[in-house]
Design brief:
Layout: E1 8-14, E2 19-23, H1 27-33, E3 40-45, E4 52-54, E5 59-63, H2 64-70, E6 80-85, H3 89-94, H4 97-109, E7 125-130, E8 135-140, H5 143-161, H6 181-184, H7 188-191, E9 195-198, E10 203-204, E11 208-215, H8 222-232, E12 239-244, E13 249-254
Antiparallel strand pairs: 1-2, 1-9, 2-8, 3-5, 3-6, 4-5, 6-7, 7-8, 9-11, 10-11, 11-12, 12-13
Helix pairs in contact: 1-5
Protein name: Oxalate:formate antiporter
């Protein structure tokens, strides 16, 4: 039975094929963590009724205005939720049968026949989710965009999960900054090993906030990943990312040299 908790974040990066597998990342968090906003997406699998129908590909697309509405939807309830972004609407009209077949294959199987970055669409991402937040496979045209997204996602998840109030009951303003690329880059060699960031085990003190990370391996079955992590979670973390509350700086300490 699926665990609906969102207080862990699993990711496994396949750099050669430019995709990352996630558990614990949802569409809203993804969109708000991107280095630039989503302007237009072609919906491959969905249940959204606010899109615009394209007569060439016989699929619906969503503009920035529709995406704003989509971000308020419970897309997890859709079951499958798959899309690819595009730059210009004219690009949809130029897609040929083979390219459309490859897009439909992507949405149906959540894997690619050819690298899923189309010149006619100039897309940056392909987002393929089953029960959004439970199993997400995201292709990134540039892995640097993934690293930047991760640097924003971690503080975002901390702020969403942390209910910190003053004695008057007024929530304190966000204190966290984005994690710089030089800190995220220290994780890159072990992202291919499969990592779990555990927000349920975050350590708070007056001086700093520490997020523990475990190296757990490569999983396609997220039930299995969560079950195995519940056992590994009893052991000491392999990595800590910490935020200095005074200096407003981030640091990363890897306790074991997995990549040597």
């Amino acid at each position: 039975m699926k665990n609906d908790s969102d207080d862990i974040l699993y990711m496994h990066m396949q750099a050669s094929e430019r995709f990352v597998l996630f558990n614990g990342l949802n569409f809203r968090e993804f969109a708000y963590s991107l280095p630039s906003s989503l302007d237009s997406i072609l919906l491959l699998k969905h249940q959204f009724d606010g899109g615009e129908y394209n007569l060439n590909v016989l699929l619906e697309s969503a503009s920035s205005e529709s995406i704003a509405k989509l971000l308020k939807e419970n897309v997890r309830a859709y079951g499958d939720f798959c899309w690819i972004d595009f730059e210009e609407a004219e690009g949809l009209d130029e897609l040929d049968g083979r390219e459309l077949a490859e897009l439909l294959y992507l949405g149906h199987t959540k894997t690619h026949l050819q690298p899923p970055f189309l010149r006619k669409l100039n897309n940056r991402y392909v987002y393929l989710a089953q029960d959004d937040g439970w199993f997400n496979k995201v292709y990134f045209r540039s892995l640097s965009a993934f690293y930047m997204m991760l640097g924003s996602l971690i503080p975002l998840k901390l702020e969403l999960l942390k209910v910190e109030r003053t004695w008057l009951g007024i929530r304190k303003k966000n204190e966290l900054t984005a994690i710089p690329l030089e800190v995220i880059s220290t994780l890159v060699p072990i992202l291919a090993e499969g990592l779990v960031f555990s927000f349920r085990d975050v350590r708070y003190s007056r001086a700093k906030i520490e997020i523990p990370i475990w190296v757990v391996g490569d999983y396609l079955n997220m039930d299995e990943m969560q079950e195995d992590f519940s056992k590994q979670n009893k052991e000491d973390p392999d990595v800590f990312i910490s935020f200095s509350r005074k200096e407003k700086t981030w640091d990363c300490v890897i306790k074991n040299d997995f990549y040597i």
